[in-house]
């Protein structure tokens, strides 16, 4: 009889604990965001929370200002990709729920920092006092930032994807000769005369020829890959462009001897489709699915032992992307 009473008490206690735990999770989700879908162009408290949570996880490194611009858009897409969600740049119910469970949001702290005019307001994983007393613009908390987000720099939150890209501008100078997929012996190239854009209506720092060459390379290297894999190849080209170990022009990166298979076998001269062109613009305007890779290879065909020694970041489609 005593045993039965103990078991009944234990069962009741376990039921109450389970109920409180589940209620707590749902309550936390319920308090996160409003019911509306948050999309580009939105402003207000929902966007502040969205930016804060993305910054807490390291996907967003810009200013928390409550304006859903392109920088927030690309950070959200990277979050969706990394967490296995539909990649649409919309903060719907599933995305908000995943964000709420994966991150923390101190509303009072964030809004206090905004009211004080601080450029960065929440980093995550760092004591709040240290965030407040960090370097200029609160940069102390930057230790937890991930390199995933390749969003355009600057304060223009309403910039269109195919418009001016401010993240690449300072690095787009004329550079030596070319480089691509996974060559072992890379030598720093000597910078040449800075190249000027040859046409309007292209991202700042990139000429029409740059865009065309990149589209050719993406088409030749990855036309059978999923769209995100094509963006990833374009991102590798741009990552090399910013690296001191590679040539300093798009043409230099692409045509560096032994760099890209498509150059070696002539497939780079195939006419690129619209998907390849779109992938190039998406990469230029901030999307780097690779997490900063400068090499990639197909594990089914790669015979170079050196490329296998590179630190691997992730696999997208048939390609493994490396540092």
Helices and strands in order, then pairings?
Layout: H1 2-31, H2 45-56, H3 70-82, H4 93-102, H5 107-115, H6 128-132, H7 208-222, H8 227-241, H9 250-255, H10 261-264, H11 274-284, E1 295-297, H12 305-308, E2 312-316, E3 319-322
Antiparallel strand pairs: 1-3, 2-3
Walk me through what this model shows.
The protein has 323 residues and is mainly alpha-helical. The chain folds into 2 domains: 31-144, Muramoyl-pentapeptide Carboxypeptidase, domain 1 (Orthogonal Bundle), CATH 1.10.101; 169-322, Orthogonal Bundle (Arc Repressor Mutant, subunit A). The protein has 12 helices and 3 strands. Strands 1-3-2 form a 3-stranded antiparallel sheet, covered by helices on one side. β2 (312-316) and β3 (319-322) form a beta hairpin. The longest helix has 30 residues, at 2-31. Residues 144-162 have a biased composition (Polar residues). Residues 224-322 form the Cell wall hydrolase SleB domain. Residues 120-207 are annotated as: Disordered.
Question: Short description, anyone?
Answer:
By secondary structure, the protein is mainly alpha-helical. The chain has helices spanning 2-31, 45-56, 70-82, 93-102, 107-115, 128-132, 208-222, 227-241, 250-255, 261-264, 274-284, 305-308, and strands at 295-297, 312-316, 319-322. It contains 12 helices and 3 strands; from the N terminus they run H-H-H-H-H-H-H-H-H-H-H-E-H-E-E.
